[in-house]
Description:
The structure is a single chain. The N and C termini lie far apart (43 Å). The chain has helices at residues 33-46, 56-59, 64-75, 81-95, 106-115, 128-138, 160-168, 183-191, 222-230, and strands at 2-3, 20-23, 120-123, 145-147, 176-180, 196-198, 211-213. Strand 3, helix 6 (128-138) and strand 4 (145-147) form a beta-alpha-beta unit. It is built from nine helices and seven strands; from the N terminus they run ββαααααβαβαβαββα. It has a seven-stranded mixed β-sheet with strand order 1-4-3-2-5-6-7. Helix 1 (33-46) crosses helix 4 and helix 3 (64-75) packs across helix 4.
Amino acid sequence: MTSTVPASLPRTADGPALQAVLLDMDGTLVDTEGFWWDVESEVFADLGHRLDPAWRDVVVGGPMTRSAGYLIEATGASIPLDELTVLLNDRFEKRIATGVPLMPGAARLLAELAAHRVPAALVSASHRRIIDRVLDSVGRHHFALTVAGDEVTRTKPHPEPYLAAAAGLGAEPWGCAVIEDTATGVAAAEAAGCPVIAVPSVAPIAPAPGRTVVDSLEQVDLAFLKARVTGVRRPSARPGPV
Protein backbone atom coordinates (compact mmCIF):
# COMPACT_ATOMS: atom_id res chain seq x y z
CA MET A 1 0.00 0.00 0.00
CA THR A 2 1.39 3.38 -0.96
CA SER A 3 0.07 6.69 0.32
CA THR A 4 0.46 10.43 0.45
CA VAL A 5 -2.14 11.35 3.05
CA PRO A 6 -3.35 14.95 3.38
CA ALA A 7 -3.08 16.64 6.78
CA SER A 8 -6.81 16.78 7.41
CA LEU A 9 -10.11 15.56 5.98
CA PRO A 10 -13.50 17.28 5.93
CA ARG A 11 -15.82 16.26 8.74
CA THR A 12 -19.04 17.45 10.29
CA ALA A 13 -20.19 16.94 13.87
CA ASP A 14 -23.83 16.52 12.93
CA GLY A 15 -23.73 13.91 10.19
CA PRO A 16 -21.78 12.16 7.45
CA ALA A 17 -19.75 14.26 5.02
CA LEU A 18 -17.74 13.17 2.01
CA GLN A 19 -14.26 12.48 3.38
CA ALA A 20 -12.71 10.59 0.46
CA VAL A 21 -13.46 8.81 -2.81
CA LEU A 22 -12.21 5.25 -3.29
CA LEU A 23 -12.05 3.99 -6.87
CA ASP A 24 -11.64 0.53 -8.31
CA MET A 25 -9.24 0.35 -11.27
CA ASP A 26 -10.04 -2.17 -14.03
CA GLY A 27 -13.35 -1.45 -15.71
CA THR A 28 -14.07 1.49 -13.39
CA LEU A 29 -11.25 3.97 -13.93
CA VAL A 30 -9.53 2.38 -16.93
CA ASP A 31 -11.09 0.40 -19.78
CA THR A 32 -9.11 -2.81 -19.23
CA GLU A 33 -11.61 -5.54 -18.32
CA GLY A 34 -11.60 -6.61 -21.96
CA PHE A 35 -7.81 -6.70 -21.92
CA TRP A 36 -7.84 -9.14 -19.01
CA TRP A 37 -10.25 -11.49 -20.80
CA ASP A 38 -8.18 -11.34 -23.99
CA VAL A 39 -5.03 -12.16 -22.02
CA GLU A 40 -6.72 -15.04 -20.20
CA SER A 41 -8.02 -16.40 -23.51
CA GLU A 42 -4.58 -16.14 -25.13
CA VAL A 43 -2.74 -17.81 -22.25
CA PHE A 44 -5.20 -20.71 -22.10
CA ALA A 45 -5.09 -21.06 -25.88
CA ASP A 46 -1.32 -21.51 -25.55
CA LEU A 47 -2.09 -24.24 -23.01
CA GLY A 48 -4.45 -25.91 -25.47
CA HIS A 49 -7.77 -24.78 -24.01
CA ARG A 50 -10.57 -22.54 -25.23
CA LEU A 51 -12.39 -20.37 -22.70
CA ASP A 52 -16.18 -20.32 -22.69
CA PRO A 53 -17.39 -16.69 -23.01
CA ALA A 54 -19.92 -17.43 -20.24
CA TRP A 55 -17.01 -17.72 -17.78
CA ARG A 56 -16.18 -14.06 -18.24
CA ASP A 57 -18.96 -12.97 -15.89
CA VAL A 58 -17.60 -15.36 -13.25
CA VAL A 59 -13.99 -14.14 -13.27
CA VAL A 60 -14.54 -10.41 -13.83
CA GLY A 61 -13.59 -8.22 -10.87
CA GLY A 62 -12.19 -11.04 -8.80
CA PRO A 63 -8.70 -11.45 -7.33
CA MET A 64 -6.15 -13.10 -9.59
CA THR A 65 -5.99 -16.28 -7.50
CA ARG A 66 -9.76 -16.78 -7.62
CA SER A 67 -10.10 -16.02 -11.34
CA ALA A 68 -7.09 -18.09 -12.36
CA GLY A 69 -8.11 -20.94 -10.06
CA TYR A 70 -11.60 -21.01 -11.52
CA LEU A 71 -10.27 -21.14 -15.08
CA ILE A 72 -7.86 -23.98 -14.22
CA GLU A 73 -10.72 -25.97 -12.74
CA ALA A 74 -13.12 -25.15 -15.59
CA THR A 75 -10.68 -26.09 -18.35
CA GLY A 76 -8.78 -28.87 -16.61
CA ALA A 77 -5.51 -27.18 -17.59
CA SER A 78 -2.40 -28.80 -16.13
CA ILE A 79 -0.60 -25.77 -14.68
CA PRO A 80 0.10 -24.69 -11.10
CA LEU A 81 -1.83 -21.64 -9.91
CA ASP A 82 1.28 -19.63 -9.07
CA GLU A 83 2.76 -20.30 -12.52
CA LEU A 84 -0.45 -19.27 -14.26
CA THR A 85 -0.62 -16.08 -12.21
CA VAL A 86 2.85 -15.09 -13.42
CA LEU A 87 1.94 -15.82 -17.04
CA LEU A 88 -1.23 -13.72 -16.83
CA ASN A 89 0.46 -10.77 -15.16
CA ASP A 90 3.37 -10.87 -17.62
CA ARG A 91 1.05 -10.95 -20.64
CA PHE A 92 -1.19 -8.21 -19.26
CA GLU A 93 1.76 -5.96 -18.43
CA LYS A 94 2.97 -6.27 -22.02
CA ARG A 95 -0.54 -5.49 -23.28
CA ILE A 96 -0.71 -2.19 -21.39
CA ALA A 97 2.94 -1.17 -21.91
CA THR A 98 1.96 1.62 -24.31
CA GLY A 99 -0.79 2.98 -22.06
CA VAL A 100 -4.38 2.31 -21.05
CA PRO A 101 -7.59 4.06 -22.08
CA LEU A 102 -9.51 5.84 -19.33
CA MET A 103 -13.23 5.24 -18.94
CA PRO A 104 -15.45 8.09 -20.14
CA GLY A 105 -15.67 10.76 -17.44
CA ALA A 106 -12.70 9.46 -15.44
CA ALA A 107 -10.24 12.24 -16.25
CA ARG A 108 -12.81 14.94 -15.53
CA LEU A 109 -13.80 13.36 -12.19
CA LEU A 110 -10.20 12.97 -11.01
CA ALA A 111 -9.48 16.59 -11.93
CA GLU A 112 -12.57 17.78 -10.04
CA LEU A 113 -11.62 15.84 -6.91
CA ALA A 114 -8.11 17.30 -7.02
CA ALA A 115 -9.42 20.84 -7.57
CA HIS A 116 -11.59 20.55 -4.44
CA ARG A 117 -8.91 18.76 -2.41
CA VAL A 118 -11.00 15.62 -1.91
CA PRO A 119 -8.61 12.70 -1.25
CA ALA A 120 -8.86 9.84 -3.74
CA ALA A 121 -7.59 6.29 -3.35
CA LEU A 122 -7.17 3.56 -5.92
CA VAL A 123 -8.30 0.20 -4.50
CA SER A 124 -7.74 -2.77 -6.82
CA ALA A 125 -7.59 -6.56 -6.73
CA SER A 126 -4.78 -6.33 -9.28
CA HIS A 127 -1.22 -6.85 -8.11
CA ARG A 128 1.10 -3.94 -7.29
CA ARG A 129 3.18 -4.41 -10.45
CA ILE A 130 0.05 -3.95 -12.57
CA ILE A 131 -1.24 -0.97 -10.59
CA ASP A 132 2.11 0.79 -10.89
CA ARG A 133 2.10 0.26 -14.66
CA VAL A 134 -1.42 1.67 -14.95
CA LEU A 135 -0.49 4.66 -12.78
CA ASP A 136 2.21 5.49 -15.31
CA SER A 137 -0.66 6.28 -17.70
CA VAL A 138 -3.29 7.65 -15.33
CA GLY A 139 -0.99 9.72 -13.11
CA ARG A 140 0.07 8.91 -9.55
CA HIS A 141 -0.56 12.47 -8.45
CA HIS A 142 -4.32 11.87 -8.57
CA PHE A 143 -4.22 9.49 -5.60
CA ALA A 144 -3.34 10.04 -1.96
CA LEU A 145 -3.19 6.27 -1.49
CA THR A 146 -3.23 3.06 -3.55
CA VAL A 147 -4.07 -0.46 -2.32
CA ALA A 148 -3.12 -3.54 -4.36
CA GLY A 149 -4.63 -7.01 -4.14
CA ASP A 150 -1.34 -8.61 -3.18
CA GLU A 151 -0.81 -6.17 -0.30
CA VAL A 152 -3.79 -7.26 1.79
CA THR A 153 -4.44 -10.53 3.59
CA ARG A 154 -7.91 -10.91 2.06
CA THR A 155 -8.84 -9.09 -1.12
CA LYS A 156 -12.24 -8.38 -2.70
CA PRO A 157 -15.00 -9.43 -2.04
CA HIS A 158 -13.68 -9.20 1.54
CA PRO A 159 -13.96 -5.66 2.96
CA GLU A 160 -10.29 -5.49 4.01
CA PRO A 161 -9.07 -3.47 0.97
CA TYR A 162 -11.65 -0.73 1.50
CA LEU A 163 -11.23 -0.71 5.27
CA ALA A 164 -7.47 -0.38 4.73
CA ALA A 165 -7.95 2.50 2.30
CA ALA A 166 -10.28 4.38 4.64
CA ALA A 167 -7.93 3.87 7.59
CA GLY A 168 -4.95 4.91 5.52
CA LEU A 169 -6.67 8.19 4.69
CA GLY A 170 -7.82 8.74 8.27
CA ALA A 171 -11.43 8.56 7.10
CA GLU A 172 -14.50 6.69 8.28
CA PRO A 173 -15.86 4.07 5.86
CA TRP A 174 -19.33 5.68 5.78
CA GLY A 175 -17.69 8.93 4.70
CA CYS A 176 -15.94 7.29 1.73
CA ALA A 177 -17.82 7.06 -1.55
CA VAL A 178 -16.73 3.95 -3.44
CA ILE A 179 -16.97 3.63 -7.23
CA GLU A 180 -16.98 0.04 -8.53
CA ASP A 181 -17.89 -1.82 -11.72
CA THR A 182 -18.39 -5.43 -10.56
CA ALA A 183 -20.52 -7.30 -8.05
CA THR A 184 -17.34 -8.53 -6.34
CA GLY A 185 -16.10 -5.00 -5.74
CA VAL A 186 -19.52 -3.76 -4.69
CA ALA A 187 -19.75 -6.56 -2.13
CA ALA A 188 -16.37 -5.60 -0.67
CA ALA A 189 -17.26 -1.92 -0.38
CA GLU A 190 -20.68 -2.55 1.14
CA ALA A 191 -19.24 -5.01 3.64
CA ALA A 192 -16.83 -2.24 4.67
CA GLY A 193 -19.77 0.09 5.29
CA CYS A 194 -19.13 2.46 2.38
CA PRO A 195 -21.81 4.03 0.19
CA VAL A 196 -21.37 2.63 -3.32
CA ILE A 197 -21.77 3.99 -6.82
CA ALA A 198 -21.82 1.07 -9.25
CA VAL A 199 -20.90 1.62 -12.89
CA PRO A 200 -21.35 -1.89 -14.37
CA SER A 201 -18.80 -2.82 -17.04
CA VAL A 202 -19.41 -6.46 -17.98
CA ALA A 203 -22.27 -7.87 -15.89
CA PRO A 204 -25.32 -5.91 -14.66
CA ILE A 205 -25.59 -4.75 -11.04
CA ALA A 206 -28.99 -4.08 -9.45
CA PRO A 207 -29.69 -1.01 -7.28
CA ALA A 208 -29.96 -1.63 -3.53
CA PRO A 209 -30.15 0.35 -0.30
CA GLY A 210 -26.95 2.38 0.03
CA ARG A 211 -26.04 1.62 -3.60
CA THR A 212 -26.59 3.79 -6.66
CA VAL A 213 -26.21 2.38 -10.17
CA VAL A 214 -25.27 4.64 -13.09
CA ASP A 215 -24.38 3.98 -16.72
CA SER A 216 -21.14 5.97 -16.85
CA LEU A 217 -18.71 8.03 -14.81
CA GLU A 218 -19.92 10.93 -16.93
CA GLN A 219 -22.96 10.95 -14.62
CA VAL A 220 -20.78 11.26 -11.50
CA ASP A 221 -19.42 14.54 -10.16
CA LEU A 222 -18.52 15.93 -6.75
CA ALA A 223 -22.07 17.09 -5.97
CA PHE A 224 -23.38 13.64 -6.87
CA LEU A 225 -20.87 11.95 -4.55
CA LYS A 226 -21.60 14.31 -1.68
CA ALA A 227 -25.31 13.57 -1.99
CA ARG A 228 -24.70 9.81 -1.90
CA VAL A 229 -22.70 10.10 1.34
CA THR A 230 -25.09 12.54 3.00
CA GLY A 231 -27.89 10.06 2.45
CA VAL A 232 -26.07 7.26 4.30
CA ARG A 233 -27.00 6.49 7.86
CA ARG A 234 -23.91 6.65 10.05
CA PRO A 235 -23.53 3.80 12.59
CA SER A 236 -24.88 4.87 15.98
CA ALA A 237 -22.49 5.40 18.86
CA ARG A 238 -22.95 3.27 21.94
CA PRO A 239 -25.35 5.14 24.26
CA GLY A 240 -23.87 6.50 27.47
CA PRO A 241 -25.25 6.18 30.98
CA VAL A 242 -28.67 7.72 31.56
